[in-house]
Amino acid sequence: MIKAGIVGGTGYTGVELLRLLAAHPDVSLAVITSRGDAGIAVATMFPNLRGHVSLRFTEPDTQTLADCDVVFFATPNGTAMKMAPALLAAGVKVIDLAADFRLKDPVQWQQWYGMPHACPELLSEAVYGLPEVNRALLHKARLVANPGCYPTAVQLGFLPLLENGLVADDRLVADVKSGASGAGRKAEVATLMSEIGESFKAYAVPGHRHLPEILQELAAVAGHAVGLTFVPHLLPMIRGIHATLYATLKDKSTDLQALYEQRYADEPFVDVLPAGAHPDTRSVRGANVCRVAVHRPQDSDTVVVLAVIDNLVKGAAGQAVQNMNLVFGLDERAGLGGIALLP
Amino acid sequence: MIKAGIVGGTGYTGVELLRLLAAHPDVSLAVITSRGDAGIAVATMFPNLRGHVSLRFTEPDTQTLADCDVVFFATPNGTAMKMAPALLAAGVKVIDLAADFRLKDPVQWQQWYGMPHACPELLSEAVYGLPEVNRALLHKARLVANPGCYPTAVQLGFLPLLENGLVADDRLVADVKSGASGAGRKAEVATLMSEIGESFKAYAVPGHRHLPEILQELAAVAGHAVGLTFVPHLLPMIRGIHATLYATLKDKSTDLQALYEQRYADEPFVDVLPAGAHPDTRSVRGANVCRVAVHRPQDSDTVVVLAVIDNLVKGAAGQAVQNMNLVFGLDERAGLGGIALLP
Amino acid sequence: MIKAGIVGGTGYTGVELLRLLAAHPDVSLAVITSRGDAGIAVATMFPNLRGHVSLRFTEPDTQTLADCDVVFFATPNGTAMKMAPALLAAGVKVIDLAADFRLKDPVQWQQWYGMPHACPELLSEAVYGLPEVNRALLHKARLVANPGCYPTAVQLGFLPLLENGLVADDRLVADVKSGASGAGRKAEVATLMSEIGESFKAYAVPGHRHLPEILQELAAVAGHAVGLTFVPHLLPMIRGIHATLYATLKDKSTDLQALYEQRYADEPFVDVLPAGAHPDTRSVRGANVCRVAVHRPQDSDTVVVLAVIDNLVKGAAGQAVQNMNLVFGLDERAGLGGIALLP
Amino acid sequence: MIKAGIVGGTGYTGVELLRLLAAHPDVSLAVITSRGDAGIAVATMFPNLRGHVSLRFTEPDTQTLADCDVVFFATPNGTAMKMAPALLAAGVKVIDLAADFRLKDPVQWQQWYGMPHACPELLSEAVYGLPEVNRALLHKARLVANPGCYPTAVQLGFLPLLENGLVADDRLVADVKSGASGAGRKAEVATLMSEIGESFKAYAVPGHRHLPEILQELAAVAGHAVGLTFVPHLLPMIRGIHATLYATLKDKSTDLQALYEQRYADEPFVDVLPAGAHPDTRSVRGANVCRVAVHRPQDSDTVVVLAVIDNLVKGAAGQAVQNMNLVFGLDERAGLGGIALLP
Description:
4 copies of one chain form a homotetramer.
Chain A lengths: L1 E6 L4 H11 L4 E7 L8 H4 L11 E2 L3 H5 L3 E4 L6 H10 L3 E4 L9 H8 L13 E2 L2 H9 L3 E3 L3 H15 L8 E7 L14 H4 L4 E2 L7 H13 L5 E7 L6 E8 L7 H8 L6 E3 L17 E6 L6 E8 L3 H15 L16
Parallel strand pairs in A: 1-2, 1-4, 2-3, 4-5, 5-7, 6-7, 8-10, 12-13
Antiparallel strand pairs in A: 8-11, 9-10, 11-14, 13-14
Helix pairs in contact in A: 1-11, 6-11, 7-9
C-alpha cells in the first residue's frame, strides 16, 4: 500500500482527493494537514466522507509527511515550493496541485504569481503532469506539477492539431467556461451564490494566470511559440469546464475525426465523441475523463473543438491520482473507474 | 454472476441503475429494454456510460427477460404488473422501482393510480423493499416493491419514534422537498429549467400518490393507523430529498439522540449525525445513504427530524440494488460503496 | 420630493432599495453611505444601476444624513441603534431594515443579538412595520422597525387564523425556506455557490434570531403567548421565501378560503390565490407582494398555509418603501407597481 | 392609447410582452390569443400578472385582431407569415417576434426553416427591427421583423468594428451562450431542469438558424459578405445571453474604447462599460439594455468584445416594444425604464 499524505485538505481539490484516495485499492491515507482546522475530523467538515475517512486534520509537520510515500499539495500557490525540497530529500514523491512547479521560468512565475520562487532549481526537474503528453517522464518523476484545470481542457483539445502542424498556431482562440468550484473554497463575495447564480460573465480577459502555462505547453508541443487568445468565463454551476477552441486549418481536407480518434485511441481518459456530437459537462461530472468533439462548421477552414472535463477530477484531483499511479508504476486507471453522475 | 435485465431504461432511475450495476462486482448486465428507443446504444443516450456500458436498448421481450436472474422495472406505473407474473413463473426475481406493488390494497391502488390492478393476487406476496424494516423478508423475496423516494425519507426519519410509540402519531407532519429528477425524464412544461429554476413551490398538497404508501407502512410499524399531513415541494435542483418531520413527544425526557443512534447502529446505509447537526442533500449525492439528525428545539415537546437521501439512489436505484443484494444473499453493501460527490 | 438617505448601501437590501427608490416618483436619492467603499460610484458596484443612479458612496456622516427627510438603515444589526437618536432629534424619519428596533424587550434583544441595546428607550416608540397589522400606527411613526423576511411571510400566513382564534396556537409549525440572498452580501464560505448550489438543508433549528420577533408579533395578534416551532431552510437559489405553515383547527367547518380572501380584500400587497393553488416564489420575484394559498388536505383538521414573498422586496426593501409611503402620507403603492419577473 | 394585440401569448416572449405592455403608459392591451388555452385567464397561467392583466386568452381571430393598432406575433415560426397580410391590409402594424420576416431571401428562409414562405412579397418591405441600425426605417415601418436574441447580441457587439472596416471580417468568431428561456416554453426533454441544470454544452455547431440572419445583417453593415463561425451554447440558467466575439484588427492602434463609446453615445439601450470591465448577464436581467465591453488582451491584434442582453427583453419582447415606440412615433424609451434585477 502506498502511504499518502495531503497538505491543505480543506479546499475542494482536497476533499476530491480524499474521495478518490479513500476508494483507491493501493493507497492508505496516512495524514492530512490544515493549519487552521487541526484537530477537526475531516468528515465533520465534509460529511460525504462520513464512514469512509476517519482521519483528523493535523498541523502540517514535515517529519510526519516525510514518512509518506507520496505527498499531495492541495494548497494555495506558494506553499508547496517551500516544503517540497525537504520532502524530496527524504525520498517522498511530491505531487503539487497548485501552480508552484508548472512554469519552467522563475521570472515568469514571479510575474504572474507575485512572489519570488522559493526553489527555482527544482523547476527543470518537475514533470508537467499531463499524462497524454508526458507519460514516459511521469513514470520516473519525483516531483509532479499537476496541470491547471483550464490548461488541461485546452491542451487536450488542441493537441492533435498542434502536434501535426495542421493549424495557423499564431492565432488560436480558447473560449473557456468553468464552474464555480474552480475558484476554490475561500470566503469571497465574488463567488457567493447570490453573485454568480443565474448569471454568466467573462473575467480576467486582460490576462489569467493559466495563460503562460498553456502557452508554455502548447509551444512545447508545436515546437515553437504559439499565439493564443484565452478568455475564461464563470458558469452558474459548481463542477465542469467546457473549452470551445477555434483555429484556422492550413488544409481543409484533413479528416479531423480520424485524427482525434487515432491520437486518443490508447488514452484511457480521453474520449473522442462521434462526429457531430456536443459533449456536456455533466457527462464527466465526478469522472476522470475528458470528452472531446471536433467540428468544421459550414465547410469553412475554421476548426471548432469542444472539450469537457470535471475541473476537480481530470482538472485536478483525478489527474493527480492518475499521475501518482504512473509515478508508482500502478495501473494508470487504478482508483479512477468511477462513472460520471448524470443527471 | 447475476444476470440482470432492466425494463424501461431511458429514465433517470434507469440510467442510475445502469451506473450502479455496471460497477457491481457480482452482476452482469444482460438486457435493457425500451420500446421507443430500441436499437440505440445506451451510451448514446447517456454519454456518462461511454466506456462502461456497451448494451443497446432492445424491444421488451419476455423470452429474453426470462433468461435473466433478476429483472428491474424502471418503467412508468402500470407496466411491471403486466409483465411480472410471467417472469416470476419463469423463476426470475422481480424488483419494481415503480408503484405497482407498493400498496397492499388493490382498491386503494386503483383510486390513486387510476387503473385497475393487473395482478392483485401478487400484492400480498410482494415485499416492500425497505431493508431497514423488512430485511428478513427480503432475503427470501421473489417480488420486491421498491419504495418511493419520499416514503423512504419519511419512514427512515419517523421509524425510531413510531416503533417505540414515543409520539402522538395521529398528527404527524412531513414537509418534504425534492429535486426535479424525482419528476422523471418526461417531456413536460412543468419541469423545464425555465419553469422550476430559481423558484420553489409546494405541489399536490390536496393529495400525493406517495401518501397512501407512507400511511400503510407507518401504520405497519406503529401497529395502528396514523395521521399524517404530507406536503411535497419542488426544489430548483436535480438530485436530493430533504424531509423535515414534526411530531409531538409524549415524554420530553427521552434521549432522542441515543434512540436514533441505537436504532440505526447496525444499518449500513443510515447515518445518524451528531446532535445539533443539519444534513445537506449534497452529502448524499450519488450515494446510497440516508443521513438523519434529530432536534428538539427550544426545549419544547416537538421533535424535528431532518432526513436526506439522493432520490435516485437510496430513493430508487441504490435501494433496488440493496434489495437485489439481499434477495440473492450477497453482501448488502456490494456495489454500493460509492462516496457522495461534494461539492 | 422626499429626500432620502441610505446608510449601508452595499448589501443586497441596499441595492434593492436603490432600485426601488430610483424609480419612485416622489423620492430623490440624496445620499448613500458605506464606510468601506466611500468614493466609489454606486453603479460601479451594482452595474444594473448604470444610467439610473449617479450617486457615489460617502462616509456615514450624521450632519449630511440629518438633511434628509428619511433615512433607511440597510446595515448589519447594531448600527441603526447608534445613529437613530440623533437623526430623530433632527426631525428625520428613520426606517431600520435590520433588527435593532424589532423586539420590544431589550433584555431579549441582547440575548439574541449578543450586545446591549444602545437606545432601549426608543423600543416602545418604534412601530413594527407590517402594514397589514400596524397601518394606523405607521401613518404617524417617526421610527419604523422593518420586519425580518421570515417573520413577514410567517405572519401574513398565520394572521387570519390567529386574529380569529381558529387554531390551537400553542403548537404552530412554520417550515420556511429562503433563497441565499437572505444571508446577505458577506464574504463567507457557507454561502458560496459551491456550498449551497444544487443542495438543500435546514439550519439553525435549535434557534434562529427571527423566532423571538415572530413570537412577539403573533402573541400581539393572538392576545396571548403562542407556541411555534420554526425551522428555516436554505434554498439553492437567490431570491424568494416560501413559508409552509401548519396548525390544528379548532373547528373544521370554517370556510378558510373566504376567511383569507376577506381578511386581505383591501390589502394592496397580499394576494390570496384561488382554492387549490400553490404559489411559487418566482411569481413574486422582484415584486412587493405576498401570495398566499390555504389548504386543508385530506379533510383533516390540519390547515396548511403556503405563503411566498421575495425576501428582498416584501421581505425587506419593498416593505421599507411601503412603510415610507405610509409615514409620509403618500399612496401606499407609490413606486411599488413593478410586476414580478417570470420566468 | 395604442390598442395592442398579441398572437400566441403562452410562451416566454408572450408573458414578457405582457409584463412590459401592461406597464406601458401609452398602450392598452386589447386581445391575446392562444389556440390551445382559449378561455383561460392569462394570470392563471402566469401568476406574476395577477392584479395587472385581466385578459383571457381567446381563439386567434383576424377580425378582432384587425381592430388593434398593432399586433405582436409571439408565435412559433411560420404563423405570422400566414396572418400578416390580412392585418396589414386592414391597416394594422405588425411586429413579428419569430423569424418569418427576418431573411430577405425566401429560398434561404425555406432552407433553414423547412417550409415555403407564405408571403415572400412582403420580405423586402419588412424592416429588420434593430433600432441601432434601422431607426429611420422603423419610424415608417408597417411590418417589423424583430431580431433573434443571438443576432441582437452579436450585431451590437460587432457593429462599430464592421461599420468602420477595422477587422478582417472574413473570419469572425462569435462564441455565444444563452439561458434556457431562449429555447421557449415547449414540452421537451432536452430543456428539462434535470437535463440542463448544473451542466453546460455547445449545440448546433454545424449550423444554427440564427446564422443566416446574422450573416445577412453583418453583410449589410460591412457592405460585403462576411465570414463568421457562430457557436451557440446552453447555460444552466434562465435569462441572459453573453456573446464573446473575436476578430483580428487590421490596425492595433485604433482606440477601441473611444470607438465604442462614440458609436453608442446616443443609444438609449446600449451601454458601453468602462475599459477593462466584464459585463455579467444579471446586470441586464429584466431590462431592455445591451451592455458591451471591448478588450484587446496581451496587446495582440485580436479584439475581444463582450456583449450581454436579456434574451427575453432586448433579445425579444423589450426590443419589440422599442420598435413599437418607433413605429408609432412615441418616445423610444416609453415603458422600457425598468431597472435590471440584481441579485
